[in-house]
Amino acid sequence: MPEENREARVEILSSEELGRTLARLASQVFETVTDSKELILLGIPTRGIHLSRVLALQLEKLTGHKIDQGSVDPTFHRDDIGRIGKRMAQPNDLPPTIEGRQIVLVDDVIFTGRTIRASLEALQAWGRPKRIMLLVMVDRGHREVPVQPDFCGRIVPTRRTENIELRLKDLDEEEGVYLC
User: Where are the domains of the chain?
Assistant: First the structure.
């Protein structure tokens, strides 16, 4: 990231705080699911996919077994595609069946809630899970649809013009959450 952009941002979570928050979120998920072998973490592009991988590693330490993962791209189910701009849709990457499974949708930031609504719609074509929960690193408010996360790392009230960035070591060579 260019130096001038780093100066214009405010640190919400340091690398150490992010690590503690991820550990707490993984523990909350572990305590909530009835059977960790039924669990599937589904990341929402783009940062939600990377965040779900980090959470899966944390959960594997708690459960002692591998956690099923995948991704669901809500692009073709959005009702605001003209407003948010176009990006290349990514293929869904789901286990062979989600029937009867406990799914945790993972995203970095929840804002209007429209991405989550579209993700839920995209999942409908794949079967009927036992339960769907939502985990986000940051809830920044400004909801336009009635969606609330089950697990939230931090609530950060923002202006509509501000942005929240989740930075992860394997992608960005730095770690933390920033208000820009």
Answer: 3-179
Residues in a beta bridge with 154: 138
Measured from the Cβ of residue 158, the count of other Cβ atoms closer than 10 Å reads 17
Strand duo 10-13 + 39-43: pairing: unpaired
Burial class (CB in 10 A: 0-12, 13-18, 19+), 98: buried
Q: What is the pLDDT of residues 35-82, one digit of tens each?
A: 999 999 999 998 999 999 999 999 999 999 999 999 999 876 756 555
Crossing angle of the two packed helices 15-32 and 47-63, in degrees rounded to 10: 60
| Distance, CA of 179 to CA of 23 (rounded, Å) | 22
Cα dihedral 136, 27, 90, 123, rounded to 10, equals: -80
3-179 adopts what CATH topology? Rossmann fold (3.40.50)
pTM of the full structure: 0.90
Give the number of other CB atoms < 10 A from CB of residue 131: 15
